[in-house]
Amino acid sequence: xxxxxxxKRLREDKLISHISFDVWNTLVLPxxxxxxxxxxxxxxxxxxxxxxxxxxxxxxxxxxxQHAIETGYAPSLFENIRLLMLYCNVxxxxxxxxxxxxxxxxxxxxxxxxxxxxxxxxxxxxxxxLSLGSNSSFISxxxxxxxxxxxxxxxxxxxxxxxxxxxxxxxETFFNKIIKSCDIAANNILHVGxxxxxxxxxxxxxxxxxxxxxxxxDIREVVYEAISxxxxx
Length: 233
Hints:
Strand order of the largest sheet: 3-2-1-4-5
Structural class: alpha/beta
CATH superfamily of the largest domain: HAD superfamily/HAD-like
Largest sheet: 5 strands, parallel
Distance between the termini: 20 Å
CATH topology of the largest domain: Rossmann fold
Low-confidence stretches: 1-12
Oligomer: single chain
Number of helices: 11
Shape: globular
Strand content: 5-15%
CATH class of the largest domain: Alpha Beta
Number of domains: 2
Order of helices and strands: HEHHHHHEHEHHEHEH
């Protein structure tokens, strides 16, 4: 009898009951018009060429990502904007630029694929608890979270965003925050994302399960394959 109870507990421990999702290139795809409009706005605001602004944006975002991997530190939205202005050697009001970024985001919203919407609603119907865990730089986590709730409904128990926390994936602190917010064991949580270091390695290092999405089109297969793999004897 004790052996049967121990086996039952072991099976329960292996079950996934909570799924954490990265946002960009996992649940949503960037709108191409968003990047084009942002570049035009910055070029006009900074009085410089579009190519120079585009390059600066890419380099600053690359630095922020690499710095997060190496140190776990995540700048706030305003700090990211200041870094961009420093790179371009210009001075402006970061709040003005932040508001413009939010306006551009609202005008050219991210692309959400129908299979992704069906997956999220299907997981909720199947009894899974869901949350969001994303690194964010030039779009505030608050803005992103509002968009996701408007798109999917209020199906996410919580959302964690690096620009609001001050630390980023793959730092273990970020994933420990997910675990604490879920209030369940780490091995009952699956984190799904597109980055092999920030998402997959970060989740696994914290004791969670991880699943890597190569293309958002394949997210349903990736999620259910990961769930099945964890539950398999």
